[in-house]
Write a structure and sequence with these properties.
By secondary structure, this protein is an alpha/beta fold. It contains 13 helices and seven strands. It has a single domain (30-71, 91-265), classed as 3-Layer(aba) Sandwich (Rossmann fold), CATH 3.40.50. The protein binds magnesium ion.
Length: 279
């Protein structure tokens, strides 16, 4: 075959291949799309001085609130002492993820690999037990211990993550990092029963978390004004007993829009939400 025939033939083959590849190339996959839609939130959580300060500010506020609550309890108990009341040990309840341990490096790694949340990837991360403490968390909980409070860690990490979670907390120097003070998820992400178990034996002075559900399961329901009506209804209790820390990376706010299902379904629901909200 001479060059005059060969060249057009090759171009024809290349052209056909290009056309065929374009025709069969899959639509952009849902997983990388969905993963990268979380990039701003993860970038903010991992790098921003604003997030860093909000954590410090939150824990400063937690310290003030704790001292105030303990003072109130002391006064109440002094009055009740004449009636012979018993003194239950005092406790602070904290969530773990994005409350005392910073998992934003896991989230960065997931996006870098075009991946959404995956239980096996998550286990690989928690097995390393190398998460850093959230700003202000260690100082606050050390101070709570000095003030005579026990600390309970109520988390939706899986029971299989017990050893690595304790190792991570112990290595960072967190107080009460032991089996008795670590309440992991036992089937349900609803923390109500676990909080009740602590309240049965302890006076719970303050709770800290990155989700409103770390205070009450009532906040799982976002059907009424995205849960903001429930916040208004419980504002007094929230102000008095709960400190909320920032986490735009995941949580009930996102679940309310995405729902459950495949990444493609979640992505589709996100699109529907934005398309149906013209302002
Ligand atoms: Mg959390």
């Amino acid at each position: 075959m001479n060059a005059r025939i060969l060249l057009p033939a090759l171009l024809l083959i290349a052209g056909c291949r290009g056309t065929r590849e374009a025709a069969v190339s899959p639509a952009p996959e849902a997983m990388p799309q969905l993963a990268w839609q979380g990039a701003d939130a993860v970038l903010w959580q991992n790098t921003s001085a604003e997030a860093y300060w909000l954590y410090r500010q939150g824990y400063d506020q937690a310290t003030d609130r704790l001292e105030l609550r303990l003072q109130e309890l002391d006064e109440q108990q002094q009055m009740a002492d004449s009636a012979g009341s018993d003194h239950r040990p005092r406790a602070v309840i904290v969530d773990i993820d994005e409350t005392v341990l910073d998992n934003s490096p896991y989230q960065v790694n997931a996006i870098r690999r075009d991946r959404t949340f995956d239980q096996n990837d998550w286990r690989a991360w928690t097995d390393k037990a190398t998460a850093k403490a959230c700003p202000g968390a260690l100082e606050f909980l050390t101070h709570a211990e000095e003030l005579g409070c026990e600390v309970f860690y109520v988390t939706n990490r899986d029971v299989r993550e017990r050893a690595s979670t304790l190792k991570n907390l112990v290595d960072l120097g967190f107080p009460f990092a032991d089996d008795a003070h670590l309440l992991l998820m036992e089937g349900s992400s609803d923390k109500t029963e676990r909080r009740a178990r602590i309240r049965a034996t302890h006076e719970v002075v303050l709770l800290v978390g990155d989700q409103l559900r770390d205070f009450s399961e009532a906040f799982k329901d976002r059907s009424s004004n995205y849960g903001k009506d429930a916040v208004d209804a419980m504002a007094d209790s929230l102000s008095r007993y709960f400190i909320l820390l920032p986490n735009p990376m995941y949580g009930s706010f996102r679940d309310a829009v995405e729902g459950k299902g495949t990444d493609a379904e979640k992505l589709a629901r996100r699109k529907v939400w934005f398309q149906s909200h013209g302002y």
